[in-house]
Amino acid sequence: MQIDSIEKMENLGQFGIVPVDYGVLCSIYSNYSYPRNKIAGLEQEGKLIRLKRGIYVVSPGITGQLLSRELIANHIYGPSYVSMESALRYYGLIPEQVYIVRSMTINRSRKFLNPVGYFEYITVPNNYYPIGISQQISQDKYTFLIASPEKALCDMIVATPGLRLQSEKALMTYLEKDLRFDMSALETMDPLIIEKCAETGRKKPILRLLLKRIRL
C-alpha cells in the first residue's frame, strides 16, 4: 500500500465510530481534483457507510470498533434521544431483541433506513422532551443521549397509538404481558421523572397510574 493511501486510512480511522458529515470528508480529500468521486469510491469499497444524505460513518473494518446504533441515531436526526423499546432493551428491562431504533425528537417525525439499521423518530412536545434524558458512554469514549428507564417507559405509554389503560391492573398487564417488562425495576424508579412527564398532560391518567404503582 502506498504511503498516501495509508495516511488517508489513518485520517478515516480518527473518526472512530462517530458519524461524520460530507463537508469534513471533503476537507480530508481536498488535494483530490474531485473529492466527491473519492468519497463515492470509498463508499463503494465498503470503507465508508452512508447513513443518510451527507452523513457517513467509517466501516468497522477500518476502525476495528463496533458501531453504536444509539450514537448513530443521535447523529442522523436531531435533536433526539434514543427511547421506547430501544432504551428499555439497552437497560436490559425487556428480553426481546429490538430491530428498530426508536428516538424522540421535537422536530417532525422521520424514518431512515440504511446499512446499519432502521431508525424512527417520533415527535414529542417541547416541554416534555428534556425530561429524564440520560447521557451514556460507549466504548469509554463516545457519548450519546438516551431516555432514562423511567422516561423510556413514559415514552412507550405516551407514543403508543390507541393505548388506553383505565386501571392499575390493566397497566400491570400491559407491562408484564405486552412489554414483558422486568417488574422488579419499578421498585428503583425515580417517581419525580414520571410525575414531570404526567404534568405535561399527555396520557396523564395512565402516567398517574404508573406513578401510583411506583410509590407503593
Summarize the structure.
The protein is an alpha+beta fold.
Plain-language structure description:
With 216 residues, this protein is an alpha+beta fold. It folds into 2 domains: 61 residues; 146 residues, no CATH class. It is 42% helix and 20% strand. A hairpin with a 3-residue loop joins strand 8 and strand 9. Helix 6 packs antiparallel against helix 7. It is elongated.
Defining key terms:
216 residues; 10 helices; 2 domains; three-stranded antiparallel beta sheet
Major sheet description: 4 strands, mixed
Task: Work out the helix count.
Answer: 10
> What is the ordering of alpha helices and beta strands?
HEHHEEHHEHEEEEEHHHH
Order of strands, main sheet, comes to 4-5-7-6
Question: Mean of residue pLDDT?
Answer: 93
The amount of helix comes to 40-55%
Output the structural class. Answer: alpha+beta
Write the layout of secondary structure elements.
Elements: H1 3-13, E1 20-21, H2 22-28, H3 35-44, E2 48-52, E3 55-58, H4 60-63, H5 69-76, E4 80-82, H6 84-90, E5 100-105, E6 110-114, E7 117-123, E8 133-138, E9 142-147, H7 149-159, H8 168-179, H9 191-199, H10 204-214
Parallel strand pairs: 5-7
Antiparallel strand pairs: 1-3, 2-3, 4-5, 6-7, 8-9
